[in-house]
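seq as requested:
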Amino acid sequence: MTASRLASAAILAFALASAAAAEGLKVYPGAKKYTPPDTEQTRAFMSALRPGMTITAYLTNDSFEQVVFFYKTFAKEYTSPGMHPAGKLPNGEQIRKTFLIFDGAPDLLKSKSWASVQHPFIGSASVKAGAPQYRDVRDVTEIVLTEKKEVPKAKD
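struct tokens:
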């Protein structure tokens, strides 16, 4: 292969990788942005996020399977070793949850962009006497897009 063809191939590969990365945080068609209520619990959660990390939640009436299928066309489904099932609601309904990595990273810790998809949506949860207590449970699918950006370290 000539040097010019090799350079062209490298440029094309870079362009495709950049396009895939830009496409990474694509919002599911028809999903509506969810803004959680302004509560002490929500503020504590948001302040606990690592610097440079942003999350945006969306809700859709489409099924868990439809949403996962959409994202799997350009993302890699990720299952953590030893990950336990998400659990069940008190009525016995299974909570389904999966993660999808957009940037080709081997896991969530190394990834800079990923999503979690869950059905049903659970607005908040707590534990009382060892049992989970779920509130604001809705028969919709939740998509949480997460992005990590490098934060410049403070100079001493």
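The chain has one domain: 3-148.
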